[in-house]
Amino acid sequence: MAPRPTAAFFDLDKTIIAKSSTLAFSRPFQAGGLISRRAVLRSAYAQFVYLVGGADHDQMEKMRQFMSQLCAGWDVATVREIVAETLHNIVDPLVYDEAVSLIEEHHLAGRDVVIVSTSGTEVVGPIGEMLGADRVVATRMEIEDGKYTGSIEYYAYAEEKARAIRELADLMGYDLEHSYAYSDSVTDVHMLEAVGHPHAVNPDRELRRIAASNGWPVLVFTKPVTLRSRVPFPPARQTLAALAVGGVVAFGGVMWASARKRRLA
Which residue of 7, 21, 53, 194 has the fewest C-beta atoms within 10 A of its own C-beta? Predict the structure, then answer.
């Protein structure tokens, strides 16, 4: 009997990239006329708190409320356009070299790479495509008449990440006991516990304690790099088109087929 496929599940913020992927776009959103200078400053403060203090449940809840209220009424096409046109400049210097190497190693070993993030699909989808991820699970905002309502339709957070991983494993046939997971936050303990090979990356204090008590490996990523030097970039319009047509919707999350899969098809 052939062995079942395996996967490597990655949190995004502070695991693959060095800051909050969503908050990183506050200035481009201001330039695009979506938010005020005051909102940009508030985003910068939230980013600082997130980086220095970690991401416990209360902080994540405040960030969720702030971002969902902030985007109410935004035009979806405008957001996607801004993300597509500024993605390279925003994300490029923030990607950890160690994370890119790890993603490459898992692909060479025949594993799928899945990004599981609390950030929104409009940001996580294109980043996943840039990194060559096979699939993405991310938060999805409610849309009516081409605009965000300010409500969240699907929230990829805490226990929901683990549930999404298990449902994806059922769908794709992944052997979770021989799969891997990586995260920096104690809020992702359930996600880490869902696989046989959990890893704490740049962990917050509580996750470091849990990793030590469970004998989980602790990885330290310290070298943000220029992604252009590591992987080829798709044209901005190609990324925008990928956003427009979307991927396969499943269990409330969004799964994106990567450029790598398309080349192999």
Answer: 53
In the chain, the domains with their CATH numbers are 7-264 (3.40.50.1000)
In a structure prediction context, what are the per-residue pLDDT tens digits for the chain, which is 265 residues long?
A: 778 999 999 999 889 988 766 666 666 666 666 655 555 445 544 544 444 445 555 665 666 666 667 778 888 888 888 888 777 777 766 889 999 999 999 999 999 999 999 888 988 998 899 899 999 999 998 999 999 898 889 999 999 999 999 999 999 999 999 999 999 999 999 999 999 999 999 999 999 999 999 999 999 999 888 766 665 544 433 333 232 222 222 233 333 333 334 333 4
Nearest of 222, 154, 219 to residue 181 by alpha carbon: 219
Neighbour count for residue 225 (Cβ, 10 Å): 17
Q: Which of 13, 112, 134, 184 is catalytic?
A: 13
Q: Which stretches does DSSP call E strand in 11-76?
A: none
- 56 is an active site residue: no
Following DSSP, what letter does each residue of 232-255 receive, concatenated?
PPPPHHHHHHHHHH--EEETTEEE
Beta bridge partners of residue 197, listed in sequence order: 180
